[in-house]
Design goal:
Shape of chain B: globular
Strand content of chain B: 25-35%
Largest sheet of chain B: 6 strands, mixed
Radius of gyration of chain A: 22 Å
Structural class of chain B: alpha+beta
Order of helices and strands of chain B: HEEHEEHEEEHEEHEEEHEHHEEEEEE
Number of helices of chain A: 17
Number of helices of chain B: 8
CATH architecture of the largest domain in chain B: 2-Layer Sandwich
Largest sheet of chain A: 8 strands, mixed
Number of strands of chain A: 19
Largest interface: A-B, 20 and 22 residues
Strand order of the largest sheet of chain B: 10-11-12-9-3-13
Oligomer: heterodimer
CATH topology of the largest domain in chain B: Gyrase A, domain 2
Strand content of chain A: 15-25%
CATH topology of one domain in chain A: FAD/NAD(P)-binding domain
CATH superfamily of one domain in chain A: FAD/NAD(P)-binding domain
Helix content of chain B: 10-25%
Structural class of chain A: alpha/beta
CATH architecture of one domain in chain A: 3-Layer(bba) Sandwich
Radius of gyration of chain B: 22 Å
CATH class of one domain in chain A: Alpha Beta
Distance between the termini of chain B: 66 Å
CATH class of the largest domain in chain B: Alpha Beta
Chain lengths: 516, 405
């Protein structure tokens, strides 16, 4: 039987990146994916001729990864469309954030925005190198570990006394406080805090990591501004696929891994391969899982092969998703009141309170009376996404609980769907009549369709207690695990989720270091 | 019409629970010397601790272990779950046998020690000194085919210890009890019953011949009366915590709160212990591919450990209670501390258990002993000698059948 150096479980972008980097350094790599390559970023036809992907824009995909995987050579065209962020006003008075500034607000807010962006960019620059590095292990006082701590300390110190203090102050500040300090315009506050909140179980008043999340996303090539590559999200996944094949990665899709095989003898335990759903066992020196930590440890490895305190800690990881996905096939371009073109990223969240209230409903197990959402029309940028003259609407809806009180019945889903259509209709009158087909994916649906515990975008909450050297939890924050031969490379590891690539990249480096 | 006045005890929830044996024990507790253990009213001693100790060593005596924590773990996954939790190989345990075990945190620090009784292929009784349900539940996460039942209050138990215990049990009508081997379990009828409600294990905490008697609480007093009737001519006597502590120290058994600080209750860094530090290496079975704390314990073993628990024979007759230990007579280099100490009447020696810096074990050991004589305090420096074997380990504890009396 064939023996691989590495088996990567899961063909999302992190799995692909890790596989490619390992293969490029001469290792044999098999990647096994239960569904389609790309995970949440995979593109599929949800209605004849209409294509969508759950992830619908790029904001912080790693430049290092683009370079190391020669993604441009493999067809990646990152310079597609720049997506302005548009805060939709019911009256048609929108607030628009572009690469150059912000429109639709007072001169004073415009000035504040310039100042605010300058400070945040400085902070983001401090953190940027650390997203692409293995975090120090708590209790390990080795030189490289101490160097990483030292570098972070030095970077912060070099901000100067005042800014360093300011950084420490705002890093865990609720988004609400940061916005209230800087701006008057409610809509502007909402859309600027949006990127710190989306994907998490946090709202503007939650103290924790919303500002850090914003800084994390600002590590991207355009300081976190959202873009679409030419050819849409599938352009990125295609390039990653080609790069993997070119590096010699063997890829198996449509077959899920049912368990990680653990060899046991008097020398202890070791991951020795994977068992597929059809019962086939494939051996490898290392198994690298891009699957979320809960599934990796509790289902694929099994609690009984792990330590008691550790498994209970994994079980308590917060990984319930709060973002639903709405896909609409439209027979024409919708008309949003007051917008000539709808080529941006449109956000329906009129005030910070509207976000907070939507969250309040969700945290008690309900979906909101007045949900908030982010909308783009990918077909405006790439005609291949819909039949000619027709369009696709793709929307992230917050906050929609993974576990709904009373369960996600057909009736509950229909009721939320109708609520969303009604809400959209207030901003784009007549859109309901344009709908050829609609699809709503709750976090519960995402969990089932994408083998994703809790349906959480980031596999596990990106919050202070689960970030940096605590991601997903201490002892496994450096990609290695308590089981020799088993590594993590998914969004549940540092730096985290979103289409970024840090975990896959860092894990590969760590694995290569361990086999030297 | 006058209603009878309702008397409400404002401290009802705080009162100590009474053991199923309490009625008989209270009648014999001449000194009313009560303390508590796990929420039960519990005798420190009944009449005189030394008298009770001599009953244990020379005849027979009973010790109420109802307050001990007891859990039934049953189901197809029970063995696997326990095997992963404790450091010893539970799969080797045969039915109707008992084994002494300990269990550790992920970091290899000792949580508690106790005994596992294999009652059937898929049914185990775990006993230990402190409430452990939370840890058991954590340990059972990932094992679906098992149940954990806390039987601490629903299974009464009496430890019956001393050289004449087998004889008394024979007189009580326990047919074939003399054939019960150490760490074995058997079931017997009680007071002429047709069924066998009495479980007997040849176990104990005194290092001597002895048994533990397990019974439903409603039959506790029936058991007591039958046992005390049979033991009358042998001077059967209840003993309390004080005599237990003497007997277990002579046997070299460790106590939580004395020799070790339970890891889950330890706040200061590494003020808890690994099994190695407590000289429990023999309980750690690295041939098992996996058990909780295995990796940490392997590391600890490779690295070596700061302290080692040793048995000390100390010059003179002043118990070295709470003494610090030194490498030199001038007490300049501190190398450890005494955890338990006593004058042993049966061994006729001044004995102690102590934690000593592993590196200092080869050199001299001196104890700085403080004692008082008619209200005047004195101190002395006494030489200590490390003993390998238990201070008290008579052959009669292991012989089957035990001698008749």
């Amino acid at each position: 039987m064939q023996q691989f150096d590495n088996i990567i479980i899961g063909g999302g972008h992190n799995g692909l990146i890790c596989a490619t980097l390992l293969a490029k350094s001469g290792q044999t790599v098999l990647l096994v994916e239960g569904g389609e390559l790309g995970g949440l970023a995979s593109t599929r036809e949800f209605h004849p001729g209409f294509k969508v992907s759950v992830a619908h824009s790029l904001s912080h995909f790693s430049e290092d990864v683009i370079e190391q995987l020669s993604l441009i050579k493999h067809g990646f065209k990152p310079d597609g469309a720049s997506l302005n962020t548009v805060g939709l006003g019911l009256d048609g008075n929108h607030v628009v954030v572009t690469d150059d500034g912000v429109d639709g607000v007072s001169a004073s807010d415009q000035d504040s925005y310039a100042q605010y962006l300058k400070v945040l960019k400085r902070f983001a620059k401090v953190l940027k190198p650390f997203w692409m590095k293995t975090m120090p292990r708590i209790g390990d006082n080795s030189l490289p570990n101490m160097m990483t701590f030292g570098q972070l300390g030095l970077k912060l110190r070099l901000l100067g006394k005042k800014d360093m203090g300011e950084f420490m102050r705002v890093a865990t500040l609720p988004a609400r406080d940061l916005m209230d300090e800087n701006f008057d315009n409610e809509l502007l506050k909402s859309i600027l805090s949006w990127d710190g909140l989306i994907g998490s179980k946090m709202a503007p008043r939650s103290p924790n990591a919303t500002v850090l999340n914003m800084l994390y996303r600002m590590s991207g090539r355009k300081d976190g501004a959202h873009t679409l590559p030419q050819g849409g999200i599938c352009n990125l996944i295609d390039a990653l696929h080609k790069s993997a094949l070119a590096a010699g990665v063997e890829i198996k899709t449509g077959v899920a891994v049912s368990k990680i095989v653990i060899d046991k003898d008097s020398h202890g335990q070791r991951a020795s391969g994977v068992q597929l759903q059809d019962g086939t066992v494939i051996n490898a020196s290392r198994v690298v899982s891009s699957v979320d930590p809960k599934q990796t440890f509790l289902e694929l490895v099994g609690a009984r092969n792990l330590e008691i305190g550790f498994t209970n800690r994994i079980n308590r990881l917060r990984s319930d998703g709060y973002v639903a996905k709405l896909h609409l096939a439209l027979n024409g371009l919708p008309k949003f009141t007051g917008l000539d073109v709808c080529d941006g990223r449109m956000i329906i969240a009129p005030t910070m309170d509207s976000i907070e209230f939507a969250f309040d409903d969700a945290k008690y197990g309900n979906f909101s009376e007045a949900p908030v959402m982010e909308i783009i029309l990918p077909s405006v940028h790439d005609s291949a996404m819909a039949p000619s003259g027709q369009h696709v609407l793709s929307a992230h809806v917050m906050y929609v609980p993974h576990t709904l009180k009373g369960g996600w019945t057909q009736q509950a889903k229909e009721s939320l769907y109708q609520r969303l259509i009604d809400l959209l209709s207030t901003y784009a009158p007549g859109i309901e009549q344009q709908i050829l087909h609609g699809e709503l994916l709750t976090p519960d649906d995402l969990e089932k369709s994408y083998r994703l515990n809790g349906g959480h975008w980031h596999h596990t909450e990106l919050s202070m207690d689960q970030m940096l050297m605590m991601r997903p939890t201490y002892e496994v924050a450096q990609y290695s695990t308590p089981i020799p031969g088993l590594f993590l490379c998914g969004a549940g590891s540092h730096p985290g989720g979103g289409l970024m690539g840090g975990p896959g990249h860092n894990a590969a480096k760590e694995i290569l270091r361990s086999v030297k | 019409m006058n209603k009878p006045m309702q008397v409400v005890d404002p401290y009802a929830g705080e009162r100590l629970k009474l053991s199923p044996f309490h009625e008989r024990q209270a009648a014999l507790n001449l000194r009313d010397a009560w303390s508590s253990w796990n929420g039960y009213k519990f005798a420190d001693y009944y009449y005189d601790e030394e008298y009770e100790y001599f009953c244990v060593r020379n005849s027979c005596a009973t010790y109420d272990i109802c307050p001990m924590q007891k859990y039934i773990i049953s189901g197809p996954d029970a063995e696997a779950m326990l095997d992963r939790m404790v450091t010893r190989d539970v799969s080797k345990l045969k039915q109707d046998r008992v084994t002494y075990v300990c269990w550790c945190t992920d970091e290899g620090r000792l949580i508690d020690d106790g005994t596992i009784f294999k009652l059937a292929e898929d049914r185990f009784l775990l006993t230990c000194g402190s409430p452990s349900l939370a840890w058991l539940r954590k340990s059972a996460f990932g094992y679906d085919a098992l149940t954990i039942e806390d039987v601490s209050d629903t299974l009464a138990a009496l430890s019956f210890q001393g050289p004449t215990t087998c004889e008394v049990l024979k007189k009580m009508g326990l047919d074939g009890i003399e054939n019960l081997k150490p760490f074995s379990i058997a079931h017997f009828p009680l007071a002429g019953s047709n069924d066998s409600p009495l479980m007997v294990s040849r176990t104990g905490f005194t290092g001597d011949l002895g048994y533990e008697l397990w019974i439903a609480p409603e039959l506790a007093l029936t058991l007591w009366d039958a046992l005390y009737a049979a033991g009358e001519d042998y001077g059967i006597q209840p003993y309390g915590e004080a005599a237990t502590n003497m007997a277990r120290l002579e046997a070299g058994f460790i106590m939580p709160g004395m020799e070790f600080n339970e890891a889950l209750k330890t706040i200061h860094f590494e003020y808890d212990q690994t099994p190695f530090e407590l000289s429990l290496d023999w309980l750690v079975d690295f041939k098992k591919p996996h058990f909780n704390g295995r990796e940490a314990l392997l590391k600890a073993q490779r690295k070596g450990f700061n302290y080692t628990l040793v048995k000390l024979d100390i010059d003179g007759n002043k118990p070295a209670e709470e003494s610090l230990l030194y490498a030199d007579r001038n007490c300049e280099k501190e190398i450890g501390y005494v955890t338990s100490a006593m004058w042993s009447p049966v061994v006729k020696a001044n004995i102690a258990l102590a934690m000593v810096h592993s590196k200092a074990l080869k050199g001299d050991i001196w104890a700085e002993i403080y004692y008082s004589k008619e209200l005047r305090h004195h101190s002395k420096i006494a030489r200590c000698v490390v003993k390998k074997a238990p201070f008290w380990s008579p052959a009669r504890a292991r012989v089957t059948p035990p001698a008749a009396f």
